[in-house]
TrEMBL record, chain A:
PANTHER family assigned: POLYKETIDE BETA-KETOACYL SYNTHASE 2-RELATED, POLYKETIDE SYNTHASE-RELATED
Family annotation (Gene3D superfamilies): 3.40.47.10
Family statement drawn from the similarity comment of this UniProt entry: Belongs to the thiolase-like superfamily. Beta-ketoacyl-ACP synthases family.
Residue intervals of the Ketosynthase family 3 (KS3) domain: 2-404
InterPro entries registered for this protein in UniProt: Beta-ketoacyl_synthase, Ketoacyl_synth_C, Ketoacyl_synth_N, PKS_Beta-ketoAc_synthase_dom, Thiolase-like
Designated name of the protein: Ketosynthase chain-length factor
Highest taxon of the lineage: Bacteria
Native species: Actinoallomurus vinaceus
Keyword line: Acyltransferase, Transferase
CDD domains: CLF
UniProtKB/TrEMBL annotation, chain B:
Domain Carrier: start-end pairs: 3-81
PROSITE patterns noted in UniProt: CARRIER
Pfam families to which the protein is assigned, alphabetical: PP-binding
Top-level taxonomic group: Bacteria
Name assigned to this protein: Acyl carrier protein
Amino acid sequence: MSRRAVVTGLGVVAPTGIGLEDHWAATLRGRSVLGPLTRFDASRYPVRLAGQVPDFVTKERVPSRVIPQTDHWTHLALAATDLALDDADARPADLPEYEMAVMTASSSGGVEFGQREIERLWRDGPRHVGAYQSIAWFYAATTGQISIRHGMRGPCGVVVAEQAGGLDAIGQARRVLDEGATFVVSGGTDAPFSPYGLTCQISNGRLSESTDPKAAYRPFDGDAAGYVPGEGGAIVIVEDADAAARRGVSRVYGEIAGYAATFDPPPGSDRPPTLRRAIERALDDAGVPPADVDVVFADAAGVPELDRREAEAIGAVFGDHGVPVTAPKSMTGRMYAGSGPLDLVDALLSIRDGVIPPTVGVRRIPADYGIDLVRDLPRRVPVRTALLLARGYGGFNAALVVRAVPDAVAAADGTTVPR
Amino acid sequence: MADRTLDELRDLMVASGGVDEEVDLSDDILDTTFTDLSYDSLAVLELAGRIEREWDVVVPDEAAADFQTPRMVLDYVNERAGVN
């Protein structure tokens, strides 16, 4: 029998802010936080806008011993992990070390650290490449550093599936609860901004070259012209419900009720894409009929062909305008491995507060998309069950279902929505 | 050339590997093991790389692997300074 996976802690380090409530207030405000890419001099690159974490002071949030060994993306995750552990009121030192697991996602890896070391290699020669390059750049570095820092010796892993990976990591977190883990640090961050990091992304042909932050990323708009990349993400604490109760947790945000991943057929195949199948399997895994889903957090590629395909998949399962759809990532940009976990945070807070955060920047949705997009302003409505979608470049699809646990649903008359 | 001192080595250690919260590098650490200073093998390897680049003393990986304490590093460096 499967164990029940509940979320008990949320840690956010995102363009919308550091910390849960700052992020949530900014998200409900419904204003884009995209701006000029400043992490490096991008003036000669065709992509100039980004979502960047504001006011992140590394030495205040990451132990000095760890800073020179790790990339910015790992720094963001270590900081988010501290926030999540604190939110869950969990002290790893008090928990069984072999029952604590770490499952994160990464997409770009340590491209800022790697940029620096590769520059040294070409400028000065191989003896000038630091020893830490060997552990800083690779995808598992964040999981490894979290595991080391907090003494978590249970199952550890990393999922690399571009934007889909963040939801896949949560799916893996739920899975390892059946393998003896009781407490999982999961989610993910990305920090994809260095010259070579950005160049890798540009090669997919889906990034927006607009320089107008208000118009650059408008998913589901007929004039959508690509997406803006972002950095940051979220780390969440996933626990076995019984173990969490034994630990005496006072707050459960919700349950990871269902998950599925599919892979698309190759380009040119006559078989259909598989996002719809991912949705159906995740709902089936959760035992949730489509009519019970209160909101869909969309992948929201911002590329018309992909937006249309996602709208069709949602319509095929839920019917024409059959469910509210939203994409708060329109405010932050697509954060790759960080986006799915941040959507999870938003979905759980939607359940808590009875409000769906908006999608911004969208002017005109083609009528045949048939989607009920929550636009510009948050929508107050009780939320018990949310479906999250993510697609990764190269054919990855992931779908995750979260639902309220008893006592975790707010009435829709909450007063937490700022105007 | 004057011998390298523990203070100079401390600076290099801070620059290469940072300092653990539990460790005070300003103590008399000459014979404290790198393990006790929270410097793992990779941290010592990074330190060896810094010594090569900044002090211009070649430290092969095999020599770095034998470093147990700051004194062993300074002895190695000071024996070879000017020889290379």
